[in-house]
Amino acid sequence: MTRVGATQEFVTSALWFLNELNKRVESHDATAVNSTNNSEAFDDEWDRLVAKSEVDKQRGIDELQRRWGNEFATRFRVVSTYFQNLPERDRDHFENALLPGDVAALNSSDVVEQLYFQAIGGHSLPQGSALQTEIVQIENLIKTNRKAYNRDEALQMRYRELLRLRDG
Questions:
Q1: Cβ distance 89 to 125 under 8 Å?
Q2: Which of 31, 108, 110, 128 is the most exposed place for a label (fewest CB within 10 A)?
Q3: CA dist 131 → 72, 86, 118, 126, 166 (Å)
């Protein structure tokens, strides 16, 4: 997780989630043996999670719109493109993960923001003179191959992040 720039908070949450999921699976297995109404209980729980997911999704979107402002649409496209290009195993992980409070991982503004950070290569943002060197390289691409730059929204967002780091 360090290699991809995951924060300690993200790793802790992921490990907590896995532990809770394991407890639920074990509890569910024990309940299944002793319950004849297990199907109804499962259906009720599923319906609750689906309804909660819709509310959480809107909350996540609202929070990202607040954080990202006028860059929301572009950043969200960058995340979506990045997510679609992840290996299937990784996509499945995020699509099926529940965070504390039964929040679907992809409905969490923090998880989506971490995916955005990964999409722009945030874990490899340069410092010092390397920062200016990368800015110059991107500006050279803008001058020599504007179409390639315009097609790469992740690169555009990385460029903006580099400028923000340089200019404060």
A1: no
A2: 128
A3: 25, 27, 18, 5, 7
